[in-house]
């Protein structure tokens, strides 16, 4: 690992060290318990043998071992409790960080929204739209005037009323001729159908 460690790397290292300490205490307690049992067995033998000095010595060692065992058990209880408090504190810290991130995100969102500026831009856009509509209306009116002026100017020079009347008459005659042709075709078809039936 590099010289400069992140907070997370340091936290993991601390957790590993604490777990090593807990495991070491548990092993030591197991060993002391085995020693207790061994001293008890030996003390019982010394008592049966009537060896008072050996019995007194073994009792002293048993007392010392039991005291060490109790001390290690208290140490283990303290470090396990501290570890639990640390885990709770880290959980609370994670919660606080998460809430801080959420609060910052919400603050950033509202910080990006400038309602006064938005209102001004909206009003400006509405004014521009209204101005554009007015300009479009003026433009259309001017265009209409030019178109009407163009239609009236010189139109009599190109097409007379007599020309228009003749065009309309020709169109009517053409339509009547088409209708007549259609009626004739229908009549011929009807005759042919009758002849087919007689065969």
Lay out the secondary structure.
Layout: H1 7-49, H2 52-112, H3 115-152, H4 155-158, H5 161-198
Helix pairs in contact: 1-2
Features:
199 residues, mainly alpha
Descriptive report:
- This protein has 199 residues and is an all-alpha fold.
- It has 3 domains: 107 residues; 32 residues; 41 residues.
- The chain contains 5 helices and no strands.
- It is elongated.
- The mean pLDDT is 80.
Order of helices and strands: HHHHH
The residue fraction in helices comes out at over 70%
| Individual helix count | 5
Radius of gyration: 56 Å
| Strand portion | under 5%
**Arithmetic mean of pLDDT:** 80
Q: Structural class given helices, strands, pairing?
A: mainly alpha
Shape: elongated
Task: Describe what is shown at a glance.
The chain has 199 residues and is an all-alpha fold. It has helices at residues 7-49, 52-112, 115-152, 155-158, 161-198. Helix content is 92%, strand content 0%.
């Amino acid at each position: 690992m590099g010289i400069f460690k992140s907070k997370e790397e340091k936290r993991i290292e601390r957790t590993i060290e604490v777990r090593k300490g807990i495991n070491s205490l548990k092993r030591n307690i197991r060993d002391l318990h085995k020693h207790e049992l061994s001293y008890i067995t030996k003390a019982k033998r010394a008592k049966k043998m009537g060896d008072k000095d050996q019995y007194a010595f073994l009792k002293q060692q048993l007392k010392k071992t039991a005291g060490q065992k109790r001390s290690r058990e208290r140490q283990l209880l303290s470090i396990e409790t501290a570890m639990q408090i640390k885990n709770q504190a880290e959980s609370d810290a994670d919660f606080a960080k998460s809430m801080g991130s959420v609060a910052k995100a919400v603050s950033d969102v509202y910080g990006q929204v400038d309602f006064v500026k938005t209102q001004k831009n909206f009003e400006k856009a509405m004014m521009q739209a209204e101005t554009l509509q007015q300009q479009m209306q003026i433009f259309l009116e001017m265009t209409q005037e030019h178109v009407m002026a163009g239609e009236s100017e010189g139109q009599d020079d190109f097409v007379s009323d007599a020309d228009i009347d003749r065009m309309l008459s020709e169109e009517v005659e053409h339509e009547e001729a088409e209708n007549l042709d259609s009626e004739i075709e229908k009549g011929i078809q009807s005759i042919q159908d009758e002849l087919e039936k007689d065969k």
